[in-house]
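Sat 14:20. Reprocessing the chain from the morning session after the first attempt stalled halfway. Input below, unchanged.
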Amino acid sequence: MTRLIFISQMMESLSVINLEDCTFLTDLRSLREAPFLTTLRLDRCSNLVNIDESIGFLDKLRLLSAKHCTKLKTLAPSIMLTYLETLDLWGCESLESFPEVLGKMEKIRKVYLDSTGIEKLPFSIGNFVWLELLSLKGCEKLHQVPGSISIMPKVKVVVHYGHEVYQIFEEELSSEVSPRAMLIGDSDVYLDVYNSHHVYLDVYYSYVSPNNVIRVCPPNQLLHSDFRLLFSKIQREDDRLWLNHNSEGISFRFRNKFPKVALCCSILAPALKSVVVMNLKFKVFIDHTLQFKALCNFIVGGGSKTTLWCDLEGKVEELFSELKWNRADIYFKLDCPMQRNCEDEKPKRSIGGGSLIWSLIGVYEEGNNKEDIRVYDNRERSSSLPSSLYNVIRG
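Finished this time. C-alpha cells:
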C-alpha cells in the first residue's frame, strides 16, 4: 500500500517524461495521475501501438513528441490541451487519423505530421487559433486541407520538401460544408466509375444565399456510366465536344425545378513543383442572383492532370414556374494560394500557376424532364437534349 502511494506521489510531481527509444513499449497507459506534466517524449518507440486517451486532456502539457512511432495508429479520439505549443508526429507512418479538437487551443504554434498515413484532417483543427506552421510533407494519402484553416491568420502550410509554404485561403468561409462532395481523379486515365478506390473532397462555402435552392452533393456512381465514354472522347480530343471555347462560364435554362446536373473540371497543376496546393472556386447564379460561392482545395503532384467532379441538384421543396424559363450560370476560377518564402517572409504567387483545361456540365435523364432544360453554348444558341447526357465544355 505504501509503495502504491509513493508511485502516485511520484506521478503527481512529474513534469517531464522521456521514453525515447523504448522499443519494448507497446502501450502507454493512463497519465491522469500526472496533472503537472509539461513534456512528453515518445520518439522512436517503434513498437508503440496504443496510447491512452487521457493524453488528450493533460492541462499543463506544452510539448508532445512521438516522432517515428511507426506502429502508432491513433493518438487520441479527441484533444483539449490548453497549453500545448508543439505537436510532433513526424514519421508515424501508420497514423490514420487526427483527433477532433474540442475547444480553442490558443498556445499551439507548430504541428508536424510529415510522412504520416493521415487521410483527412478534421474541420475542428481550426481551433488551433494561432497556429503558425502545419507541416504535411510526404503525406501521400492526404488530398485536402480543411477549410477552417482560413480562420487561422498566421498559419503556413508545407506540403513538399522545399523552402516555400502556402497560405491556403484569402477569404472567410461560411459555416456550411458539403462533406465528401467532390470526386477527384486522374484526367490522364479519366474517372473510372467502377474503381472502388475513389477519393472524395469536402466543398466549402464562402457565401450562401438565404434563398439558396441548390445543393452540392457527391456524384452518384450508379448514374454516371455515360461519363466513361465521355471522358474517353475528351481524351481523344473529339472536336464535337469542344462547344464553349473562350467562355468564362457555363449556362443553361430550366423550368419547374433546378435539374440534377454533373459538374466537372479538368485541372493542370504547375509543372515546376513536385506537390502543390490548388483551389477551384465556382459560383452559381439563377436569373443573375448569386445562390452560392463554393471552393474545393486539393493537394496534387506538380504537372499532373486532375479531374474534379460533383453533382448539383435542386432542393425538393423549391419549385419554379412551369412557364418561365430560368437562367442558370456557373462560373469557374482556379487559384494557386499565396506562397511565402521561409527565409524572407515575402509573399509571392506560385510559380507556374496551373490552368483549367476544360469544364462541362452533364444533365441526367433520370430525375429530369428533358423538355424543361435547354443548354446554351457561348453564342447563346439553345439546344434540346439529344440523349441522357448533354455536355458543354470550356477550353
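The longest strand covers residues 289-301.
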